[in-house]
Amino acid sequence: MKKFAVAIALMLFAIVGNAADRATTPEITPPANGEEFLRLSSTEKLFWSIGYSQGYLDALNKIDVAAGPNSACASLSARTERQSSTAGKMSGFELVSGLEKFYSDPANTVIPVGSAIRIYMLQAAGKDQATIQELIETARALGAESSRRPMASK
Amino acid sequence: MVSLLAMAVFLAVSTAPKPLPHRLPAIVPAIVLTALHDTNERNDFRRFEGALAVAKSIADVMPLGTQRNELRRAILIYEDVDAVWSFAVHDRYGAYFNDDSLPGMHDRLNADYPGYDDYIAEYRVADRKGNVLYPTTETRRFLLKQLVQ
């Protein structure tokens, strides 16, 4: 009987602990574009942006493991992709603010988040306005096209 | 001859500039408020600023009364929305604010809008130095809810 009571008590502790874990860990659906990004709360945006930066850097650091140290993928990663990584270049607060600013133009909401981050980083680095506008126009066209296309997973 | 004179008097009266305030058709403030509401819904800051400027100029020429008071009250709330939104759009770290970035804003909102502190407590965050920061998006959302009440 004592063992049974202890087992029930342990099970209850486990359930309560599991529920507490779930309550403190926000479940965030990664936003695909501005429309989805703007639907998140500020806390979710902040958590997501920190996770995005960290995940992007982790993936870059593993490219040479997956593709080989001297492969074309590894050198491409080193040359170009590292430039578009936000990790170490801007804080989560700045990334959220930058994206909110970028998506404050309703025409930009169709642009995928990855493209928006790259464009914002170029803007912040002082790239000329003509190039930025050209990139935005292209990203809008591509974003509108992808939103018209049905998703493969659906 | 009489009809010509009547016509001339009518034209003179109808085209002469009227002293302020003008009596506006009731639909005009409603149109302006709809524009302010819709620009917020669409998250269109540029058009919101335009709509707010128009609303202020209309309120200035309206005669005193309930209609003007209602418009003025809405404008006061939208001015707070504008202050927060403008900061969000123009500042590098505009997603969040505190007393350093928007001096006195949190205290003023707390004093002017009962329930703001309780509402925003759920969304506030602290940076690595322990500074408490309040999100501009949720603050805007709270202010817009005040218009409905």
Q: In words, what does this structure look like?
A:
The complex is a heterodimer of chains A (154) and B (149). Chain A has one domain (32-148). Chain A has helices at residues 2-24, 34-39, 42-67, 72-79, 92-102, 113-124, 129-148. Chain A is an all-alpha fold and 154 residues long. By secondary structure, chain B is mainly alpha-helical. Chain B has one domain (22-148). Chain B has seven helices and three strands; from the N terminus they run H-H-H-H-E-H-H-E-E-H. The radius of gyration of chain B is 21 Å and the shape is elongated. The mean pLDDT of chain B is 85.
Instruction: Name the helix and strand elements of chain A from N-terminus to C-terminus, one letter apiece.
Output: HHHHHHH
Low-confidence stretches of chain B: none
Question: Could you tell me the number of beta strands of chain B?
Answer: 3
Order of helices and strands of chain B: HHHHEHHEEH
C-alpha end-to-end distance of chain A: 52 Å
Span of the ends, CA to CA of chain B: 59 Å
Gyration radius of chain B (Cα, Å) is 21 Å
Bulk shape of chain A: extended
Tally of strands of chain A: 0
Report mean pLDDT of chain B, rounded to a whole number: 85
What fraction of the residues of chain A are assigned to beta strands by DSSP?
A: under 5%
Name some characteristics of this structure.
heterodimer; A: 154 residues; mainly alpha; 69% helix; extended; B: 149 residues
Question: Would you kindly provide a brief summary of this structure?
Answer:
The complex is a heterodimer of chains A (154) and B (149). Chain A is 69% helix and 0% strand. Chain A has 154 residues and is mainly alpha-helical.
Fold topology:
The complex is a heterodimer of chains A (154) and B (149).
Chain A: H1 2-24, H2 34-39, H3 42-67, H4 72-79, H5 92-102, H6 113-124, H7 129-148
Helix pairs in contact in A: 3-4, 3-5, 5-6, 6-7
Chain B: H1 2-15, H2 27-41, H3 45-61, H4 66-90, E1 96-97, H5 105-112, H6 116-121, E2 125-126, E3 132-135, H7 136-148
Antiparallel strand pairs in B: 1-3, 2-3
Helix pairs in contact in B: 2-3, 3-4, 4-7
